[in-house]
Design a protein that fits this description.
Number of strands: 0
Number of helices: 2
Largest sheet: none
Oligomer: single chain
Order of helices and strands: HH
Structural class: mainly alpha
Length: 88
C-alpha cells in the first residue's frame, strides 16, 4: 500500500487592524474611545456620505413641516381676526 503525502502551504492572513494598534478593550463597549475604528470605505458606512445625506434630508423635512405648521397657524389667526372684525 502506498500513501501519497501532500503538503499544504498556509499563508498567514493579513487583515487590516480595525483598532489602529490600540488595545481591543479600549475600542469595544458602549462608549468606545476616540481614534478607534477605521475610516468609512463605503458610502453607507458610519460617517459616510449616505449618512450625511440622510441627516440633511431629515433636517429639510423638519423645516418643511415647521413651515407648514407656521403657515397653517397664521392662516387660522387671519381667518379668526376677520370673523371678529379685528383687522387693522
Amino acid at each position: 500500500m502506498q500513501f501519497n503525502q501532500t503538503t499544504r502551504v498556509v499563508f498567514p492572513a493579513t487583515l487590516p487592524d480595525p483598532y489602529g494598534g490600540r488595545n481591543a478593550s479600549d475600542c469595544i463597549g458602549l462608549y468606545p474611545k476616540p481614534g478607534c475604528g477605521s475610516e468609512p470605505a463605503l458610502s453607507g458606512d458610519r460617517g459616510g456620505s449616505m449618512q450625511y445625506a440622510t441627516f440633511g434630508i431629515m433636517i429639510a423635512a423638519l423645516v418643511v413641516i415647521g413651515a407648514r405648521i407656521a403657515r397653517s397657524i397664521s392662516k387660522n389667526d387671519r381667518a379668526r381676526d376677520e370673523a371678529l372684525g379685528l383687522n387693522d
